[in-house]
Structure formats: C-alpha cells, structure tokens
Design brief:
Length: about 375
C-alpha cells in the first residue's frame, strides 16, 4: 500500500498561528462608526456614513486585506516562506503590507511608475516594497509573473474579493450597518450606496440584503473612465475603457471577476469633477477631510435622497466614508492639480450646495 503525504507539521502550525494573529487584529479593533450626515430633520430622510477611515490602516480596504489573508491561509496558498504580491498602488497595498508585516512575510506592491511618492511612502511605512511598471495596463500581468519568480502568492484582489468575504454575516460590513441602525427612526435603509473597485463590497452588501430578506436596494456609483457602468447599462461584460480611474479605490478599465452585477439595483455614473466638488463641500460640513471616493458616494446618495423627497417618501440612506482626505493633499485638495486635470468643480459645487439647502436635484 502506497502513501503520499504532503503535510508539514511545522508549516501547519505556522498557518494556525497566523490565522489566530489575523483574527486577533479584528477582535481588538472596535467596529467602525456609523456617522449621521446633517440634513434637516423635517425632510424625514436620514443619511449615514459608515466611517471606514478608522481602521488601523485608514481605509475600507483593511477589511478586504484581512479577508484575503484569511482566504489565502485557509486555502493553503500562504505559508511561512511566502512572498505576498499584489497589483495595487493604493489603499489595498497599504493594508496588505500591514498584515504581511504582522505575519513576518515580505510584501511587494506592483504599481504604475507614475504612482505618487506619498502612496509609495505609505506602503513602505507598513514594511512593503514597491515594484514600478512603466505600462499601467501590464500591472496585473507583472504581478503574476513576479509572484511566480519569487515562489510567492499573488493575492489577486480583483478575482477573490467577492468570495473571500463571508457575505452571510460574521460581522461583515453589511451586518454591521444594519446592527448600528437598529435604534434609528428608519432602521432598514431604502438604499445603500457604494462604489466598485474590485466589486467585493457591493457583492457583500447586495447578497446580505437578499439573504436577510430585506427590501434595501443597492446603488453602485461609478467614476469617469470606468467600465462598470457601461457594462451594466449594456449588459456587455466585455466592455473596456482602456483608461484608469482618477478616483482612487473605485472604477476599473474593465469588468473585474469580483463584480456581481445581478445584486446591483441601480448604477449612477459620476463625473470626476462632481466627486471632487462633493468631497470638498461635504468636508466643510463635517469639519474633516474626506477622500475622493466618498465624494462619489455622497453625490449618488444626494441624488437618491432628492428623488425620495420629490416622491414624498421618508426613510434612510447609507453610504461609505472610505478613507480620509489626508492622503490626497497634493491631488484632490490641490487647486493646481485639479486645474492640470482640466476639471471644473464650480458647477457641481453649486448643485451640492443647492441640495444641502433645499433638498432638490437637477433632473
């Protein structure tokens, strides 16, 4: 009788300890806050921001990174000698570098050569290394090759985001939102508004609402240059734009595997100038700087609330505060950068200010 045994007791013990370490990070981190956005109470509609900026690595991507590491560990893809590789120049790379360092593993972020020094510094601060690629379209291919060359593991957030998260519960972002709304005057939101980068968050929220038999609808807001809106509108999942998004964390030039269109009830295409104008206006209202994708989210939320008001409906809307604006001092909050991008914020700023004063929105 022949036996083939690939079990290494030392490696298995390391994986068990690694899972415990990652789980402990979640256990000692308090849940993120659900912040009310100030709207006139007489409108009868409440708006909330799920503040993901308070995670240890400062963004919504902390949840994704944790889930991807657990998924890789439990699948046997990550071991004590693995080099972790990811295609990301933004918040996902920062968060994955954090967890890799926690486990004592090297981390490499593959990113375009045009990535700002500020982003590179954030990743390096968490112990990661940045591998720059001249052609942005080849970042994913290069990440796969690098992982093979290093004998490491390519995390592949764009494929595994929707399946790495436990969408039925386990304190995922959807379960947390509903629990925190329990004592509010409209505890079941009419809409939850999110952007799509990998598509993992929209998949989790859309699935959870259906699983819990809740009437909440999911709206996905999409920035310029992203293929998601075009693909969803035309039911053409091969749609591409060939251009990257200026709004970090959301928007993709092609439809990624993690995006689940069937759980999306509505999509809104948001001009980049509208995202930044809303970001700036909302930052002044809240007294803190928000990131660009939060501006995209709020533009969509304001649109939906105005429609609810016009229809005489009351209720609640929830969206995400994805990260803080401190990371974007030299871009989204720089008038020089905005002008260099050819963006004119003033017309959109007027729309937002009129909404905040009257609750109306242009048709």
């Amino acid at each position: 009788m022949e036996h083939l045994d690939r079990c290494n007791d030392a490696d298995r013990a390391w994986v068990i300890e690694a899972i415990a370490i990652v789980e402990a990070d979640a256990n000692r981190s308090a849940d993120t806050h659900l912040l009310p956005f100030p709207l006139p109470r007489a409108w009868g509609i409440d708006l909330y921001l799920k503040d993901e900026s308070v995670h240890p690595t400062g963004s919504l991507k902390h949840r994704l990174a944790r889930s991807l590491f657990l998924y890789g560990l439990c699948n046997g893809w990550i071991g004590p000698r693995s080099t972790i590789v990811e295609a990301s120049s933004g918040s996902t790379a920062v968060s994955e570098a954090y967890f890799a360092r926690m486990l004592g593993l090297p981390f490499v972020a593959v990113m375009p050569a045009t990535t700002s020094p500020e982003k590179i510094a954030l990743i390096e601060f968490q112990g990661g290394r940045c591998h720059l690629v001249e052609d942005p379209a080849r970042v994913v291919v290069e990440a796969r090759w690098l992982a093979e060359d290093l004998g490491g593991h390519y995390m592949d957030q764009f494929t595994y985001a929707e399946r790495a998260t436990d969408w039925r519960g386990n304190n995922n972002i959807a379960e947390s939102i509903y629990a925190q709304l329990a004592l509010e005057r409209h505890p079941v939101p009419d809409w939850i508004v999110v952007g799509a980068g990998t598509g993992g968050t929209s998949a989790t929220i859309g699935r959870y609402a259906r699983y819990r038999r809740l009437p909440t609808k999911l709206c996905v807001v999409d920035p310029e240059n992203s293929a998601y809106y075009l693909a969803w509108r035309d039911a053409d999942w091969s749609a591409t734009t060939g251009r990257g998004s200026r709004i970090e964390g959301i928007g993709r030039p092609g439809v990624e595997a993690s995006f689940q269109p069937a759980v999306v009830d509505r999509m809104i295409q948001v001009p980049d100038a509208a995202s930044l104008a809303t970001m700036r206006a909302a930052s002044e209202v809240l007294g803190r700087r928000l990131g660009g994708s939060t501006g995209t989210n709020l533009w969509g939320a304001f649109d939906l609330i105005a429609q609810m008001r016009a229809a005489g409906r009351t209720g609640s809307v929830v969206t995400l505060l994805c990260d803080g604006g401190e990371r974007y001092t030299d871009t989204y909050y720089s008038d020089e950068w905005v002008a260099a991008q050819g963006l004119e914020l003033a017309p959109y700023r007027s729309i937002v200010e009129r909404f905040l004063a009257t609750g109306t929105w242009p048709e």
